[in-house]
Amino acid sequence: MSAPEQTPGARYAPALEAPRSPYRRTRSTRTNWELYGWLFMRMSGLALIVLVFGHLFVNLMTGEGIHQVDWGFVAGKWASPFWQTWDLLMLWLAMLHGANGVRTVINDYAERDGTRFWLKMALYLATLVVIVVGTLVIFTFDPCSSPAHDFSFCAPADEVPTVSD
Predict the structure, then answer these.
(1) What's the whole-number mean pLDDT along residues 16-30?
(2) Which spans in the chain are helix H?
(3) In this structure, is the dihedral angle defined by the CA atoms of residues 69, 134, 137 and 80, taken in order, positive or negative?
(4) CA 68 from chain center: how many Å?
(5) d(CA 113, CA 83)
(6) Quick one: which of 66, 87, 116, 132 is 20 to 30 A from 53 by CA?
(7) pTM (two decimals)
(8) 146 and 75 in contact (C-beta within 8 Å)?
(9) CB < 8 Å & 24+ apart, contacts of 49-55
(10) Cβ(138)–Cβ(74) below 8 Å
């Protein structure tokens, strides 16, 4: 019996080592993004548990419960840099956590490379838009811009500095 003929340029599986030979790990020069994604999911999940349950406790359990949550309540909360940062962290972590999970599902179930590419591009674009718009809303929200709302934390209209010609 002769050995099979080799086609020029064909690739064959590497030879198997002897059963009791020592294991030699080959060093890879590239980073392991899937490991980082897996770690991010665990760490962001723990952080989100604290952020979401803290958010729910403050909004639903303190004061008058759900009846207190209105435009003025949110305006009062976002007047504090602490709550702006809290909600910003919750927004960013939730969006990145969810996008990473959907990216994993796309990698697992999209069979064609082109389909996988366009689904992930749509996911990344949607994630970016929600993060940018949400961040802008959190930091540019000005409850005192409308004179119809008279909140205790807003300065009276006659004390607000204006630019005159």
Answers:
(1) 72
(2) 33-56, 71-77, 81-109, 113-140
(3) positive
(4) 29
(5) 42
(6) 132
(7) 0.69
(8) no
(9) 51/86, 51/89, 51/90, 51/93, 52/90, 52/94, 54/86, 55/86, 55/87, 55/90
(10) no
Tell me the per-residue pLDDT of 88-131, one tens digit each, with 9 for 90 and over.
999 999 999 999 999 999 999 999 999 999 999 999 999 999 99
155 DSSP 8-state letter: P
- What 37-41 contacts at long range (C-beta under 8 Å, 24+ apart), as own/partner pairs, is 37/100, 37/103, 37/104, 40/96, 40/97, 40/100, 41/97, 41/100, 41/101
Residue with tokens 């003929």: 5
- CA angle, residues 134, 141, 96, in degrees to nearest 5: 15
> Given this model, what pLDDT does residue 31 score?
73
Token duo for residue 100: 């990473």
The pair of three-digit structure tokens given for residue 21, joined into one six-digit string: 């030979």
112: left (phi over 0), alpha (psi -120 to 50) or beta: beta
For the record, the structure tokens of 152 come out as 């205790």
CB 116 within 8 A of CB 107: yes
Backbone angles phi, psi at 144, to 5 degrees: -90, 5
Q: Rounded to whole angstroms, how far apart are CA atoms 147 and 19?
A: 82
